[in-house]
Specification:
The complex is a heterodimer. Chain A is of the alpha/beta class. Chain A contains 23 helices and 20 strands. In chain A, helix 5 (134-144) packs across helix 6 (149-162), helix 6 (149-162) packs across helix 8 and helix 18 packs across helix 19 (456-468). Classes of the chains: A alpha/beta, B mainly alpha. Chain A: Belongs to the ABC transporter superfamily.
């Protein structure tokens, strides 16, 4: 309460640079440090969200965080708000005003929130309570800041005038749903600045706004920033916007800061191949259209190949060994591993045990013998091991029509995993859903659609998007393209390759379609009667098969060359098994 | 209240907007009222027609056993029972609008008088039950919500599931057996002890006892009402609790809750200022939906507890083929249910500005 009064006096005295932007170089170098992350990491289970991030903001400085969906941009803001879901763990330091955010008591943290640290949200209209008037919400905030009731009306009118809202008195008497998104965002900015905060965190604050409103909002933000000299953490996916508004920009990819520096330098002459790729993928407003390119495919090769998930000595047997019929052996001695960003194809005839392996890796079935390793560690039956497992490996099911709940909308379906780990906030879920739809190449308008309103290809994309929600490192896919038209199949293949390029995702794909595997996989593993009979690079295995079973599979496929005789008229062989 | 101050300070466009909102609200309420009248007429007509098709002849019940066929015809003509059903309904409706519901066949007293005696008893029970039901439901929901994810919530949930499985009349019987017969803590027959007399001022015994300045009588009536009220409340509370709790859960996924936290409000403030009101709205709507069930519950509860309300009166009227009484009581119940739903509507309009004011964006 007193801090509010103190800082008003402070700003009255120090308020010298109205309208001018403090320069990133020179001027702020000596300014006090507001925010500092040092080797700061966030993980959920084994999955890294942020990896050893080191960033800082000084007074009067705007730091932009840019990156693609799922890069971990919003996580920093969430850490400052201490609003991370339960399963997330942090390491390293995250300081505000020289104090470790994670260590301070809850009351101390709450005292900072909305006072010295202010937030500007992505969706202003839903951030304002719909059953209370703007004046009531703003007044409540002022009461918390220690402004006497009698002064509140005047202060609110002044604050709303400051953000260029016409007719502030009338606005105070409205509800959020009566106002436009742009007006509500200016209200949020006015409220955020009411306490003269030292640090403002803006998470995609203009994403939901149209271009003109976005410009006005940025003008407002910039003006307020210059007037009160606060630092801003500006999270956005819009590189151009970041370039114009920020002093410094950090490019985030898969939780790692790949490049950081003065905005002009990072965005005009990026050094890191990924930032270069981002720049190349951004369409220009002027000049001739340039070919848009996604970040370089070379990036998919990780520094050192490491297995994500491995199976060791798997065996599956049914029945009681002591009973008369004895045991039926489904699988024996299976060793298999999938490395980071590796696409592995699993082929074999029906009943060879390939689906069983997929189910065992996904944790849907227990092997009779053998271990599953995640990052080199044997997975047990504990709940935390299960959390690690589902955060790392996700299964995409064969039939999207039956795998998607027909009563739920797309945004709800694809973000169910967030609910499971405690991220219930609707706008977060919708935002993640929009990112996921973009990831799988679906229009954002499908967010509110039901599965039955979509085509088979769209449904399969939703199915994949759902598996991607937790940013898994491994997708386990059982015949996910076999039911699709060739054109849709091609789209899904392309999508999977794109996802690998963007997120270093690995894939274990069960399929009987050799041409799809040839197109998609680095390595194929051939199974026959519950055992691996051959494995190797795709080309090698399919062109020069060593094992009889592989040769039989290849020979049974209708050849590309129509002049060849097919089918060859082979007889059913004796060891046919019924599919499991 | 800051809000009130602001309304007072409203000028210009906002004032105009508020008036528009008011007009919209009035229109909505007027429409609601009009449809209720139509519903009411439809219900009375339906019941009238159904009662006339029953194999019960009111004239035969009125006349002594040795009456001749000619006598019967004469009385029938006298009562207008020889005319068409619609014509009879028109007569009934005309009289009903004048407050004349005919004479009870069983008691040979004007139905109006009987209802005037019985209605306050029922209203008393229902008001207290709804109050208690809401109180129990809200506190249970709030408790389960604040302790979410703990054994406390699991315990409340289990109790709620049990309570939900027991209908209100069964609660009545359980309470009579346990508290009334077993423990003998509370009386369970009638409205008051035979020794206690309360002057008839308003007809509401509790209020009359207070007006007469007789606290012991007030307490006596309260003790008599405790069990039936609790039984009906227990029919309402579990549902209220469930909807209120899910309303809170739903509200807590909204951005304004996160936003309030980001402004540094404590969990308690977030709940009281942002969560509660948004969660109460669906709960109040539910209570409106449950109104008919609630009033219907009085039929059995009043019979079980021997309370002279309109529920018990309805049961005896049905048993005695007392057509005028049945007809009037149906009308009475319909009015009560419709009035409750309108009242709920008004409360929702007051709580939720989105219903009052058209979306401007």
């Amino acid at each position: 309460m007193n801090s509010f009064v103190r800082r008003i006096e402070e700003t009255d005295v120090t308020e010298t640079v109205i309208g001018s932007r403090p320069q990133a170089d020179g001027g702020t170098a000596q300014a006090p440090m507001l925010f500092e992350a040092a080797d700061f990491s966030v993980r959920t289970g084994q999955t890294p969200i942020l990896e050893r991030v080191t960033l800082s903001i000084r007074k009067g400085e705007v730091l932009g965080i840019v990156g693609e969906s799922g890069a971990g941009k919003s996580t920093l803001g969430k850490c400052i708000a201490r609003a991370l879901p339960r399963q997330f763990t942090t390491a390293g330091r995250l300081d505000v005003f020289g104090e470790d955010i994670g260590q301070m008591p809850a009351s101390r943290h709450r005292a900072l929130m909305g006072d010295r640290i202010a937030f500007v949200p992505q969706e202003p209209t839903s951030a304002l309570n719909p059953v209370r008037r703007i004046g009531s919400l703003f007044g409540e905030h002022l009461t918390r800041l220690g402004v006497p009731k009698a002064e509140q009306q005047a202060r609110m009118v002044a604050a709303l005038s400051e953000v260029m809202l016409p007719d502030p008195e009338a606005v105070l008497n409205r509800y959020a749903f009566q106002l436009s998104g742009g007006m509500n965002q200016r209200i949020m900015i006015a409220m955020a600045f009411a306490s003269r905060p030292d640090l403002v965190i803006s998470d995609e604050a203009t994403t939901a706004l149209d271009m003109i409103t976005q410009e006005r909002t940025i003008v407002t933000l910039n003006d307020m920033r210059a007037r009160y000299g606060c630092g801003v953490l500006f999270i956005t996916h819009d590189l151009r916007l970041a370039g114009h508004f920020c002093d410094r920009v950090a490019v985030l990819r898969n939780g790692v800061v790949v490049e950081e520096g003065p905005a002009a330098q990072v965005l005009e002459a990026p050094q890191h191949p990924y930032s270069q790729g981002l720049k190349a993928a951004t369409p220009r407003l002027d000049g001739p259209p340039h070919p848009l390119a996604a970040p370089s495919p070379k990036l998919r090769i990780p520094a050192q190949p490491a297995p994500i998930m491995a199976a060791r000595g798997l065996a599956v047997r049914y029945g009681d060994p002591k009973s008369a019929g004895g045991q039926v052996e489904i699988m024996r001695d299976v060793d298999l591993q999938v490395e980071v960003a590796e696409f592995v194809g699993l082929i074999g005839r029906s009943g060879s045990g390939k689906s069983t392996i997929a189910r065992i890796l996904a944790g849907l079935q227990q092997p009779t013998e053998g271990d599953i390793l995640l990052d080199g560690r044997v997975l047990g039956n504990s709940a935390s091991d299960w959390q690690d497992r589902i955060a790392s490996a996700q299964m995409v099911f064969q039939d999207p029509s039956s795998a998607l709940n027909p009563r739920r909308r797309v945004w709800d379906i694809v973000t169910q995993a967030m609910v499971a780990r405690g991220e219930r906030l609707k706008s977060d879920r919708r935002r993640r859903a929009a990112e996921l739809l973009a990831d799988v190449g679906l229009d954002e308008r499908l967010l509110d659609a039901y599965p039955r309103q979509m085509s088979g290809g769209q449904r399969q994309r939703v199915n994949i998007a759902r598996a991607l929600c937790v940013m898994p490192r491994l997708l386990i896919a059982d015949e996910i393209v076999s039911g699709l038209d060739v054109s849709v199949q091609a789209q899904v293949i392309y999508l999977l390759l794109e996802l690998r390029q963007r997120h270093d995702i690995a894939l274990l794909m069960v399929s009987h379609d050799l041409s799809v595997l040839r197109q998609l996989c680095d390595r194929v593993v051939v199974m026959d009667q519950g055992a691996i009979v051959e494995a190797g690079p795709t080309q090698q295995v399919l062109d020069a098969p060593q094992h009889e079973a592989t040769r039989a599979l290849i020979a049974a496929a209708p050849p590309d060359d129509l002049s060849k005789t097919w089918p060859r008229g082979t007889e059913w062989d004796s060891n046919d098994k019924t599919p499991e | 209240m800051a809000e009130l101050g602001l309304i007072g300070g409203a000028k210009g466009r906002a004032g105009g907007l508020r008036r528009n909102g008011g007009a919209r609200t009035l229109k909505r309420l007027a429409r609601r009222f009009a449809t209720s009248i139509v519903t009411l007429l439809a219900i009375t007509l339906l019941v009238f027609v159904v009662l006339r098709t029953l194999p019960a002849d009111p004239v035969a019940m009125l006349m002594p056993g040795n009456a001749t066929e000619a006598d019967m015809e004469r009385v029938r003509a006298l009562l207008g029972l020889d005319r068409s059903v619609l014509a009879q309904y028109a007569i009934w409706l005309g009289d009903a609008l004048k407050g004349d519901f005919g004479r009870s066949i069983q008691h040979n007293t004007p139905v109006r008088v009987l209802i005037a005696d019985a209605l306050p008893v029922t209203l008393q029970i229902v008001t207290l039950s709804v109050g208690l039901g809401i109180f129990l439901g809200f506190s249970g929901g709030l408790l389960a919500f604040t302790w979410r994810g703990t054994p406390v919530e699991a315990g409340i949930e289990m109790g709620n599931g049990l309570a939900m499985a027991v209908p209100d009349f069964l609660w009545g019987i359980i309470l009579i057996l346990a508290v009334g017969v077993g423990l003998q803590w509370l009386p369970f027959i009638g409205l008051q002890s035979p020794s206690v007399t309360v002057p008839d001022i308003t007809g509401f015994v509790l209020i009359d006892a207070l007006l007469a300045g007789d606290p012991s009588a007030f307490l006596d009536v309260l003790r008599h009402l405790a069990l039936p009220v609790f039984a009906i409340a227990m029919g309402l509370a579990p549902t209220v609790m469930r909807v209120f709790r899910s309303g809170l859960m739903e509200a807590y996924t909204e951005d304004y809750i996160a936003s309030a936290r980001l402004r540094g409000q404590s969990e308690r403030q977030v709940l009281l200022r942002h969560g509660l009101k948004n969660a109460v709205i669906p709960t109040i709507t539910l209570i409106g939906v449950q109104a008919s069930m609630l009033f219907g519950g009085t039929l059995l509860i009043e019979t079980i507890f021997g309370l002279p309300g309109i529920g018990a009166m309805m049961v005896t009227a049905i048993g005695g083929h007392d057509l005028p009484a049945i007809q009037a009581l149906t009308f009475c119940y319909a009015v009560l249910v419709l009035a409750t739903t309108i009242a709920v509507d008004v409360i929702c309009l007051a709580l939720d500005p989105r219903l009052r004011i058209k979306d401007q964006s």
